[in-house]
Design a protein that fits this description.
heterodimer, A: mainly alpha, 77% helix, elongated, B: mainly alpha, two-stranded antiparallel ribbon
Chain lengths: 98, 145
């Protein structure tokens, strides 16, 4: 086990701690916005975990997982922020709806 | 919390969504063709394409999407199932077990010698079914009334 592996394990432990804290905020969070932002940050932390694992296992097959997770996290962010802003996610007629 | 003014201006979201839509569609086509030896395939490619369409639904509205892409998603699901079933059944008519696939090496122009496989037709069926079902579900439960 060389230095890089030790550093990757330390980073994974830190990310695990961060995700546990975010999970606490998802359960406890006083408002909807807190829960939404915490879920969003869990997605970002998950991307980092997959990237660290792909360094640890020395494979490039996980890169597509990273791209896919980041696209889904982006769409989730857009949907959550539209929900917070407008109150509905998919509108039928944007110009004429009240 | 509901603002409901007609003068909501989200030009940044709409401009970005048009560009990101094509990036996601290209990635989904890449995933669709990568599916034989590496991660990917018809299912996840279809999910990515429907994610791109959902992004357009979020940035614009369902009326705009119906104008831009006049697709009946139920028809799309049915044709995908038909393609997958036909790919499975063609081996039965040739006297082989159900879902036996055929492949061979072909000399294609520009691409050189490539292996073509009938599993790609089955995957195309899965792709169409996933897009059709996902967008039917989202449009059914996403509409306000």
């Amino acid at each position: 086990m060389d230095l890089l592996d030790i550093l990757i394990y330390i980073s994974l432990a830190i990310l695990l701690l961060a995700m546990l804290m975010m999970l606490y905020r998802v359960v406890k969070g006083p408002t909807t916005a807190d829960r939404v932002i915490a879920l969003d940050s869990i997605g970002i932390a998950l991307i980092s975990v997959v990237a660290l694992l792909s360094i640890l296992l020395d494979t490039t097959l996980y890169f597509e997982v990273i791209l896919l997770l980041s696209i889904l996290a982006f769409i989730g962010t857009v949907a959550f922020s539209k929900f917070l802003e407008r109150g509905e996610i998919i509108q039928h007629d944007r110009d004429n709806d009240l | 919390m509901k603002q409901n003014s007609k003068r909501v201006n989200d030009v940044i979201l709409q401009t970005a969504a048009i560009i990101i839509f094509f990036i996601i569609v290209i990635f989904s086509i890449d995933l669709f063709f990568a599916g034989h030896y590496s991660p990917g395939g018809g299912f996840i490619g279809g999910l990515m394409t429907s994610a791109a369409l959902v992004l357009l639904l979020l940035a614009f509205d369902s009326k705009t999407l119906a104008n831009v892409l006049p697709i009946d998603y139920r028809l799309m699901t049915a044709s995908g199932l038909l393609i997958a079933l036909a790919t499975g059944l063609h081996s039965v008519f040739l006297g082989r077990p159900f879902l036996t696939h055929a492949y061979g090496k072909f000399d294609l122009p520009l691409l050189g010698e490539q292996t073509l496989h009938t599993a790609i037709a089955f995957d195309l069926g899965v792709y169409l079914v996933v897009i059709g079902i996902t967008l039917t579900i989202i449009q059914t439960i996403g509409e306000s009334e």
